[in-house]
Amino acid sequence: MSKHINDPGLYRRLSEPLDSMELATKKGQDFYDEVCKLREKYHIPELVLSFGINVKDQDGKETMVVQVGQRGSARADRLILELVRGTRFGEALLTMIDELTLAAFK
Asked: How many domains does the chain have?
């Protein structure tokens, strides 16, 4: 297991907000580009990625820039399902989808 999985000090440092939306957007895009290069290097056909970067907005208030990306398409829906399965949000979402599906066929 990676040593970076449970590193409170690293998380604290990474949680410090960046000074501008432009910088957060640039860093996010650069990160996404690097991940896409790693996808090819490590032969990963399907990729679903979501991340957030803390940033100070124009008023100096802390907020988060959230970026989501997907590469590949054959099984991305399964990856997304696995990502949410087992979380409270995911279970609520799956329940809602089941209820909507059942209602549609009544």
From this structure: 2
Task: Quote the CA–CA distance of 57 and 17 in Å, as a whole number.
Answer: 10
Question: Closest Cα to residue 32, out of 18, 51, 9, 14?
Answer: 51
CA distance 72 to 20: 31
**Taking the alpha carbons of 57, 80, 7, 26 in that order, is the dihedral positive or negative?**
negative
Same domain for 61 and 79? Answer: no
Same domain, 45 and 91: no
Q: Does residue 82 share a domain with residue 43?
A: no
- Whole-model pTM? 0.68
Residue 79, pLDDT score = 73
Helix residue ranges per DSSP H, 42-85: 76-84
